[in-house]
Amino acid sequence: MWRTLAGVVSGLLVLFVGSLAFNAASGQSHWPGPLDLVRVHPWLALLLLIPVSLIGLWQAPRRDRGPNPPMTYQLPPRNTDFAARDATLRELRQRLTSASGVPMLVVRGMGGVGKTQLAVEYAYRHLEKYRFIAFVHAGDADRVASQFVSLAGELGLAEASFDQVIPRVYGKLADRRPWLIIFDNGEEQNTLTHALPSGGLATNGHVIVTTRVRNWSSSAGVIGLDVFARQESVRLLTRRVPGMTAAVADRIAEELGDLPLALEQAAGYMEYNQTAPDDYVMLLASRLEEMISLRAPGDRSAVMVGALWQLSVRRLEAERPQAVRMLRLCALLAPEPIPLDLFTRSPEILNVGAADPLVWDRTVGALAGLGLARRGNASLVVHRLVQAAVRADMPEEAHADARVQLCRTLVAAVPHDVHGDPDARPRWQELLSHVLAVTKDDPPAECAAETAVLLRLASEFLIQIGDYQMALPLCERALAIDESIEGRDAETGFDLITLAQIHRELHAPERARPLVERALRLHESCLPANDPAIGTDLATLARTLCLLGEHRAALPLAERALQIDEAALGPNDPYVSFDLIALANVHVDLGDYEAALPLISRALQIREAVYAPDHLYIGYVLILQAKVLHAMNTPTAVDFARRGAQILQTRLGRTHPKTEDAFALVDRLRRLT
Fold it and tell me: 132-137 and 205-211: which strand pairing?
């Protein structure tokens, strides 16, 4: 703004001096000494001033254009009511940027003390100092790597093997330094070691870890975060609550032990209910200690948050029952951002008023206003302490009913075609933690089938991103649930096929084979003979037999799979191209290149008609075709190999193992020709 104003003032000054020049040209005779040049040579002054003024006017708005905003990943919305912690924020910045400092800092403190809010506020205050900022939910260590897979996609890494995705992300971030990664709620250092940068990678950016535990080693700097200082508590309350005096704020802060989360709830309660501060003090004095004494012993901060929630829920139950129902649903989900469209897409299932825009806005607004949730543009976050308090007070029947509703809602919300839906990966990344939270315990009978579907689909997504170890127990649970329900033969077959794929990827084809054979028998007994599911079974069994060296037995299975999918899906469907490649590979393993080549050529033709010219699926077919042509001593093999290698380089990067193998093939073929 100041630069623009300076440009305007400069322009006016230029116009003023220019007017003097015009006056001089018209015959004025008396001028101050510094303007004698203008008087004597007015037209020369004008000629000089015109380009200067044009440059000034052109440059002024350009100077106002700041640097491009940094790219962010999963960064929660900023807390507009954030107060205090200025000294801690300054210390955080100084220690991260000091030449002798450690580029990784651990923010440690008890639940509800504001660790996450501090890290998020730091990110927003220094947004322009970084070129990339990522927020990783580290409460579930098993999910950290899967978030890096999503992060890799955001950075343009089209494909990264699961065991290599973390170092590849850090390598890519070298082009976006300085960067910042926040690992939120990291409970154990040893479970995060694989995700933290090391060596030269650590010098390119900064890492902040928030945690409640104390056993982080001295290799990372530690900032202990305590409750608010009393003056910070008083400042928050007097700023948020009209009519709040410093003396009353001091009494409330004393009752709440200066715990930031409790103070936010107190401020939210008074704002939402328009409760006079003096009346709230009396309410706390008469009810808080009684409510705390009635709850089970434990972490005082958790008990206090639960007690304050009870004060809020009494009002909500009478005025906004939809808000209470919604909070109970949120309590069973993960303590991560909950997409609001999860509720708006299934209003008839969840019964939280989402079908009526006015009721819905007031429902979400009530939770945010009371400090029970934080609202973003398209999401809602409920603190894990609030979630725990809500779950503890939920009757068993209400808990089971909420779980049934959530299971049915999630089944409708998650993509079922994990491989074919282009939006499947980002949506699954958004919902995976909530699926895992809802399905972690044995399901009520009313939603057992939905739980099995969610577990299998989650395992299919994890297979796609390469997390086979995490996918395995989920799929085993899906299979056990479906086997316990009568009339689920088809679904049991789907579970078996998915489980077989996991074992095959884990290099255990001998375990995969009986699973696929059983799936095929089940599907042949309950599905039409030409159902695509049977085609999938046959193709999976063929690939498994090839891994076991039984290529002759695999050949008729692959041929039948192709016939079924062609009849069911059409000859030019993308899925048919996968059958063609599977059959071609069987012929290649048998040394029958003449039979393999037309299958590969047809698969390439299908994919070139469906996918972008630089799609990986096209690159892979080109490399396979080059290998077959080379085996047939065809000179054009090098052209296919070169084109395939260029696609892999574009999509995977020059250092990816598949790209390196492709260029090695190009070099080998070039030497031969």
Answer: unpaired
Tell me which amino acid residue 640 is: F
Residues 666 and 658: their CA atoms lie apart, in Å, by 12
Which residue, 127, 120, 130, is CA-closest to 182?
A: 120
The CATH class that applies to domain 409-596 reads mainly alpha
Q: How far apart are CA 579 and CA 394, in angstroms?
A: 51
Question: Following DSSP, what letter does each residue of 73-131 receive, concatenated?
Answer: ESPPPP-TT----HHHHHHHHHHHHSTTS-SEEEEE--TTS-HHHHHHHHHHHTGGG-S
How many angstroms separate the Cα of 652 from the Cα of each of 73, 158, 348, 424? 21, 6, 44, 20
Q: How far apart are CA 53 and CA 48, in angstroms?
A: 9
Residue 224 CB contacts under 8 Å (≥ 6 apart), including other chains: 108, 109
> pTM to 2 decimals?
0.79
**The domain at 71-224 falls in which architecture?**
3-Layer(aba) Sandwich (3.40)
Question: Residue 572: which residues within 8 A CB-CB, separation 6 or more?
Answer: 606, 609
Q: How confident is the model at residue 419 (pLDDT cuts 50, 70, 90)?
A: confident
Q: What are the Cα distances from residue 169, in Å, to 135, 202, 210, 242, 642?
A: 14, 12, 21, 48, 27
Rg of the Cα atoms in the chain: 32
- Tokens 């954030």, residue located: 82
Other beta carbons within 10 Å of 246? 11
Taken in order 438, 442, 444, 447, the sign of the CA dihedral is positive
The Cα–Cα gap between 102 and 202 comes to 9
The first and second tokens of residue 197, run together, are 């940068």
CA angle 233, 92, 176 (to 5 degrees): 130
Q: What is the largest CA-CA distance in the chain?
A: 111
For 537-587, write each residue's pLDDT tens digit. Answer: 999 999 999 999 999 999 999 999 999 999 999 999 998 999 999 999 999
Distance CA 123, CA 207 (A): 11
Contact between residue 649 and residue 657 where contact means Cβ atoms under 8 Å apart: no
Instruction: Please provide the DSSP assignment of 298-347 as one string.
Output: S-HHHHHHHHHHHHHHHHHHHH-HHHHHHHHHHHTS-SSPEETHHHHT-H
Q: Which residue has the tokens 């955080």?
A: 92
Smallest CA-to-CA distance from 456 within 443, 471, 434, 445 is with 471
Tens of pLDDT, residue by residue over 107-125, are 988 888 889 999 999 999 9
